[in-house]
Amino acid sequence: MVPVQFITHATSRYSYIEGARLALRGGCRWVQLRMKEAGDAEAEATALEVQALCKEQGATFIIDDRVELAKKVQADGVHLGKHDMPVAEARQLLGQEFIIGGTANTLEEVLALKRAGADYVGVGPFRFTETKLNLAPILGLDGYAAIVKGLHEAQVRIPLCAIGGIRLADVPALLNAGVSGIAISSAILGADDPEEMMHRFLEADR
Fold first, then answer.
1. Total-model pTM
2. What's the 3-state SS for the chain?
């Protein structure tokens, strides 16, 4: 089974909660709640509902950016972008029991996040995606392969999660390039049947 992280976003069809529910029904067992534009009260209320859905399915629940909220609701962890709280600072606040993920676009950034105490790194974008503003340079398969090779040469091990415009047909090649898993959002919520599409992503290595 392909390790898949579902990242929430609201669409004209689905709310954050509905999207998470569909992903979980499709078999996903790692949900990242990403609500960049929401206020604190809305984010906390949504987090508690999505957290409950994840607990029902035995899924890992990660909150994007909001370190204090992750600690308050006792989420499984937090994912930090380049302009969010530094990983080392978040580790001091959360301790070792929380999962902390970082975001990178280069080998140097991955190595820095490893040194700072990140548990995994979201690396991207694979291709252009409309779900993220201020997009970093596109990596493509060659970019992932180069980062994996660089980590091997540096004798550094850390899980890499590919992200950014990933489609179902891309999964086998990405896994062959050496990434540990993938993160998806629009590919699920834009599908005619989000549950079935999630299932197909999870089985894409067969």
1. 0.95
2. CCCEEEECCCCCCCCHHHHHHHHHHCCCCEEEECCCCCCHHHHHHHHHHHHHHHHHHCCEEEEECCHHHHHHHCCCEEEECCCCCCHHHHHHHHCCCCEEEEEECCHHHHHHHHHHCCCEEEECCCCCCCCCCCCCCCCHHHHHHHHHHHHHHCCCCCCEEEECCCCHHHHHHHHHHCCCEEEECHHHHCCCCHHHHHHHHHCCCC
